[in-house]
Amino acid sequence: MRAFTRFDVAAVLMALGALLSCDKVDHDNIDKWLETENGAEKLKKALKSGSNDAELRAHAAENLILHPEGQFVEVKDAFEDMEEEDQHKVMAALVPRLWEKATSGPDDPMKVSQTNVQAKDAMFELRQYADEATRAKLDGYLIEWLTRFYEGRAQTGRVSGRTIIREIGKPAAPKLMEQARAMLVKPAGTAGEHLKVGDELLVALAWTGDPQATGLVMDMVTKDYKDESLPKRAIAALHEAYVEPVTGTPLPAHDALAPHIAQLAEVAKNESLPGVMNNDAIELIAAVGPPDCIQPFVDMAALPTVRRDFRWTGVQRGLRCGGAAAVVPILDTVPTNNWYERGLLEKYIWKEIEAAPGGGKVAEQVRQLLTSKSWVARVTGIEVLGVMSAGKDTAAEDAKRIRALAGDRTVLKEWWGKPKDGKKKPDPTIGQIATEVAGRLEGLAKGTETK
Q: How many Cα atoms sit within 13 Å of 44 on the Cβ side?
């Protein structure tokens, strides 16, 4: 065998140097690895190694996210294993890179590439690993990306627009409102057609949780924007965000909806609107919670006989929403210029009061009904206390209060409804009912309860 010459040694050293330079973690190699056979593994190592600076690790993460074989899960796992400080540093370096990729290509808001969408999705899905300052910047990028053409872009990629807006919340409202208003005020086309605000944009406005954005959506419910479908779609968007989301839990409704509760109340009792809109408005009012929800339902409870379906809905919803605080206002409002069957009052009023949370507070409000000018309130006080006074102590006191109405001669016409056997029972007076219930409670107090 011949001896190695200095030329041979030099060649070996050059080859070794070339090999080592291929494995060196620098920006040039990170880009080269994107297209080499084992490049993905080298990129993962570069991302995971704490000995590399944040810029290099961010570059490696970027290339893994955009890798032809899809390596996003590996990137997320790597972030999960990092110390919090490293997470923040790498995200601060990664976000500008992803934003550049999200906006690369032709400047056409209606066209996005797979690279654009992958970068957008990655920004959102890695958002949790950013510190507050980087997250604010990232959120701004996401809002800008979506609102370049919200209706089209909201449905692209793994992460929908409504998911992103739900997470970002109020900061997204100004840009979304700007886009919606631009569509609403745009003049009609040559054929008289108007640009329609799409469902995705409506839902996004609702999901911001912003009172002003909610107000704009309510304007679309109540004002004429030359789109017959808009009011129904707009209130459905609010219903999704604050009452019944497709997924997840509804937004807290009070701050966003309370300023617009008068508009909701008008929609709730407008019988010229589709029933689904009435129902959506009713449920949105209920979502606001007490005390704001009580007055709109009191107003519904006062509606005349021809609007009885709306009235009883107002009674039920008012009692469910307001609990103890709604008992007196609701009962003092129910019209007394016509008569009601006992079964109707039991279904829509008495059972609702009995089921209301608050126990002693509810009972105190019911006792106030006994002195009301309304015969509906007085008979309700008698019947409900007859059920609620289950303890001996309260039974004795309530029996005294109720027996004080034994002389009430108000005749309860139609009390028993239509007879099934053709034999009509005599209409009782409030005094007769008071005497019967008081006697039952007195028996309970003495331990000799009778049915």
A: 15
Separation of alpha carbons 408 and 430, rounded Å? 6
pLDDT value of residue 109: 85
CA 25, 27, 29, 33 dihedral sign is: positive
The burial of 362, by beta-carbon neighbours within 10 Å (0-12 exposed, 13-18 middle, 19 or more buried), is given as buried
The whole-number pLDDT of residue 20 equals 46
* Beta bridge mates, 411: 429
Dist CA 50 CA 438 (whole Å): 81
Structural contact between residues 196 and 190, judged by C-beta atoms closer than 8 angstroms: no
Residues in the chain: 451
pLDDT > 90: percent of the chain: 74
* 296 closest CA partner among 336, 324, 323, 326: 326
C-alpha closest to that of 334 among 370, 378, 368, 292:
378
Beta bridge partners, 429, equal: 411
| Closest to 254 in 3D by CA, of 321, 202, 312 | 321
